[in-house]
Write a structure and sequence with these properties.
By secondary structure, the protein is α/β, with parallel strands linked by helices. Helix 7 links the parallel strand 3 and strand 4. Helix 3 packs parallel to helix 4 and helix 6 runs parallel beside helix 7. The radius of gyration is 17 Å and the shape is globular. It starts with a helix and ends in an 11-residue tail after the last strand.
Length: about 210
Amino acid sequence: TLALRAKDPVAALQNIAASITPVSKDGPGLADFPLPAEVRGPVEQLVADLHAWQAGEIPWRDVSRGLLLVGPPGSGKTEIPRLIAQEAGIHVVAGSVAQWSSEGSRGSEVTKAMRSAFAKAAALAPSILFLDEIDAFGDRLRAQDHNSAWTDHIVTALLDLLDGFHGHEGVVVMGATNHIGKIDAAIRRPGRFDTVVTLGYPDHDLMPA
């Protein structure tokens, strides 16, 4: 299955190697990361759900998903998906509009790179697909300008992929943003990114002694 999803033999071998390589648990874990209770709660619930699903105790539809991490730069948004994956023993596939645009700035090229990331997450399932700086997709309701057609194209493509993965067993899609007000409303609707976890900078009480 992994080989058929890959675009060439080298990619197939890389996917197979990654899928059978255990996730390293070296270094500080989730328990060591400074998180307030209102953040730690939903994060640890996701980890518990992933363990329960892997043990066959709950169906995939009962795994908590749709986490949107909101906070300023340096607050730990990109670290949390890695720690969740480390704790659950699964893989992380990360992507962003900026990363995908480096492969070509046309909407069709960004969409192709985005679809590749979703396909990779599916091939490595169980996995987390982490979409960083999700506000960069844009908002279709903002004032019309010369980028409006591009925004319409990639937001629609993202929604199509998210809906296709809503019931996809083994792939948790997470997002992060510094600017929640700039996200298209459809991306935030129930079933997509509807669980908002707000991060700040940790205070002295949360820092390790």
